[in-house]
Amino acid sequence: MLSGRVEHVQRWRGVESAPSGWGRCVVTVGVYDGVHLGHQQIIGMAVDAARADGVPSVLLTFDPHPSEVVRPGSHPAVLTSQRYRAELVEALGVDVVCVLPFTRDFSRLEPDEFVHKVLVEHLHARHVVVGENFRYGYKAAGDIVSLAAAGRRWGFTVEGVPLSGSGGTTWSSTYVRACVSAGDVEAAAAALGREHRVEGFVVKGDQRGREIGYPTANLEPLPWSAVPADGVYAGRLVLRGEQLPAAISIGTNPTFDGQDRRVEAYVLDYSGDLYGEHVGLSFTARLRETLRFDGVEPLVEQMAKDVARARELLA
Predict the structure, then answer these.
(1) Pairing of strands 10-13, 242-251
(2) Cα 152 to Cα 148: distance, rounded to the nearest angstrom
């Protein structure tokens, strides 16, 4: 039987991907969208428990978001793409990231079926670490109490971790989404432990920025991305691991009577071609709200001030 930590981080699609001879392990389960400080605490405890026992740590997450399957059309804004989420949890020391395809049939598994099929039959869990508000199984009927009872029956222990934050705030993905939606990217960063990032591909825009001296990278965010409120922000464009300082505008370009909401980044001191690149935009601070200007000249004057302020904040 396999034992001890795996040599390299593994990514599985479904628990059926567990190699033959897979031994006992410590498991943590959750959507983990955002990988905020509360998530990091849970994952860290699972990793520590696995290392103490000399077994691998496995993080189970889901794709797509369970809400979209159970209640189509209710998909919440996404704080982290699957790829970025995997990178974040791997950095916390997890040995295996297992993405469970969340299908209609899977959503109908009764709590006991979920425990036996996922945690016992395939993963041979010896210890399970989850948030104290963890729910599982058909109609979210399972909770931490029933999970602990199942553990006593099947031979694993359960640890529930509170998601308490600072100043009486409870860390949650819902809270972070609310901060992002309000444009309070600094509060979001405080809960995430890092700046919020929106990922997507750079596409052609109106190319108006080039004409007025501020060429921008027009981002087409990945589906369901949690995009901050309209406004101008200081932040960074992340390109293949490199972080480039930028002034970021979100809105409809009211000065030009725009209709479509755009996410555009003016990358400071950069002249390369970004079209077609997969990039991220991280948000450091909100500089101002979106404004309508009486023509191009006052707009350019304000953009110069925005860039100078962004440069100052990002220095």
Answers:
(1) unpaired
(2) 6
Domains of the chain by residue range: 10-167, 196-314
Of 121, 151, 146, 119, nearest in space to 135 by CA: 146
Q: Which residue do the tokens 């825009």 mark? A: 205
pLDDT tens-digit map of 128-138: 999 999 999 99
* Strand order across the beta sheet in which 96-101 lies: 10-13, 96-101, 57-63, 25-29, 125-131, 157-161
H helices within the chain, ranges in order?
A: 37-53, 66-70, 82-91, 104-107, 111-114, 144-154, 173-181, 185-192, 208-211, 296-314
Does domain 10-167 correspond to CATH entry 3.40.50.300? no
- Give the CB-side neighbour count of residue 240, counting CA atoms within 13 A: 3
Relative to beta strand 278-288, strand 25-29 is: unpaired
Phi/psi of residue 167, nearest 5 degrees = 65, 30
Q: How many CA atoms lie within 13 A of 150 on its CB side?
A: 25
The topology under which CATH files domain 196-314 is: Elongation Factor Tu (Ef-tu); domain 3 (2.40.30)
CA distance 279 to 277: 6
Residue 4 has pLDDT above 60, yes or no: no
pTM for the model: 0.90
pLDDT digit string (tens) for 256-269? 666 688 999 999 98
Neighbours of 285 (CB within 10 A): 15
Asked if 10-167 and 196-314 have one fold, the answer is no
Is residue 222 within 8 A of residue 199, CB to CB? The reply is yes
